[in-house]
């Protein structure tokens, strides 16, 4: 039963959640901490989210670690949370999945953090308010299996009794170019410290490229140097092989899967 529930959680939390018509219930233990004072400024984060509705719109998807059978949200997808009380969160498009713990806290005057812990993983949402009702978010979602994805985008938050639902969020506007063209990004980075100087990477169908820098943690796909990035390439599975000068170390042959509108990271370690 746990594995089945986990698979449902992965599907509904990481996949195209807006396709579902049902409204599920997330039950947890809410630690509604943070400052009790209000600065009164337009960009101040609320001291509490109880009684509020938050709609997140995905704009960027960064796959840090992929896994078999996992499908991720895409740009334009939305997730909605209704914070009813200290023990109840209603999520549009989510099934009934209990949390083991749940918390909200303020970070500075215009930041907030939402943490949801599950038996098989966790989600940390960092919110930056540009006004009382709008802002930007980064959602770091991790599974105990090692799968990790980071979503970035915008959010809006309002009172539950304001009457401003989320009905028009999925039907308007054109698809992103990456969605229309079915393209994504493949990025290589190195964490190995005992490789000799440069690491040459060969991806089938593309010229060889070379890495010269080592990172202690996964860099952003938007980094301008130190990584090898194949941008706007057709979605699909690519074969690759890498080796350092000598060579004294080799990686592969292996494969990496690129999905539309996502950045797939490959670590050489």
Notes on the protein architecture:
The protein folds into 2 domains: 2-173, no CATH class; 178-268, Sandwich (Immunoglobulin-like), CATH 2.60.40. Helices cover 7% and strands 48% of the residues. The chain is built from 2 helices and 17 strands.
Quick overview of this protein structure:
This protein is mostly beta strands. Helix content is about 5%, strand content about 50%. The relative contact order is 0.17.
Kindly estimate the percentage of residues that lie in beta strands according to DSSP. over 45%
Shape: elongated
Main β-sheet: number of strands, strand sense, barrel status? 13 strands, mixed
User: How many domain regions?
Assistant: 2
Rounded radius of gyration (Å): 20 Å
- Which percent range fits the helix content? under 10%
Mean pLDDT figure: 75
What is the β-strand count?
A: 17
Element order: H for helix, E for strand = HEEEEEEEEEEHEEEEEEE
Q: Indicate the structural class.
A: mainly beta
State the end-to-end CA separation.
36 Å
Low-confidence stretches: 1-42, 163-174
User: What is the number of helical segments per DSSP (H or I, 4+ residues)?
Assistant: 2
What are the SSEs and their pairings?
Blueprint: H1 2-14, E1 23-27, E2 30-32, E3 52-65, E4 78-85, E5 88-92, E6 101-107, E7 111-118, E8 121-129, E9 134-143, E10 148-159, H2 177-181, E11 183-190, E12 199-203, E13 209-211, E14 228-234, E15 236-244, E16 250-258, E17 262-268
Parallel strand pairs: 2-6, 3-17, 11-17
Antiparallel strand pairs: 1-5, 3-4, 3-10, 4-5, 6-7, 7-8, 8-9, 9-10, 11-14, 12-13, 12-15, 15-16
């Amino acid at each position: 039963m746990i594995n089945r529930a986990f698979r449902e959680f992965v599907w509904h939390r990481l996949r195209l959640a807006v396709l579902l018509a049902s409204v599920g219930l997330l039950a947890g233990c809410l630690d509604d901490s943070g400052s009790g004072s209000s600065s009164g400024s337009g960009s101040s984060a609320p001291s509490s989210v109880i009684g509020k509705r938050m709609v997140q719109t995905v704009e960027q998807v960064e796959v840090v670690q992929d896994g078999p059978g996992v499908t991720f949200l895409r740009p334009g997808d939305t997730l909605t949370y209704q914070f009813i009380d200290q023990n109840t969160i209603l999520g549009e498009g989510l099934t009934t999945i209990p949390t083991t713990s749940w918390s909200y806290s303020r970070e500075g005057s215009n930041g907030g953090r939402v943490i949801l812990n599950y038996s098989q993983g966790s989600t940390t949402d960092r919110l930056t308010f540009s006004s009382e009702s709008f802002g930007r978010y980064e959602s770091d979602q991790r599974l105990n299996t090692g799968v990790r994805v980071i979503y970035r985008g915008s959010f809006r938050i309002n009172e539950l009794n304001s009457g401003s639902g989320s009905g028009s969020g999925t039907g308007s506007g054109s698809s992103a170019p990456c969605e229309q063209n079915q393209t994504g990004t493949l990025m290589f980075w190195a964490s190995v410290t005992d490789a000799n100087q440069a690491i040459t990477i060969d991806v089938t169908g593309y010229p060889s490229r070379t890495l010269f820098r080592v990172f202690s943690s996964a860099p952003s796909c938007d980094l301008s140097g130190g990584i090898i990035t194949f941008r706007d390439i057709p979605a699909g599975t690519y074969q690759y092989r890498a080796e350092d000068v000598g060579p004294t170390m080799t990686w592969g042959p292996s494969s990496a899967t690129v999905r539309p509108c996502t950045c797939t990271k490959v670590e050489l370690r």
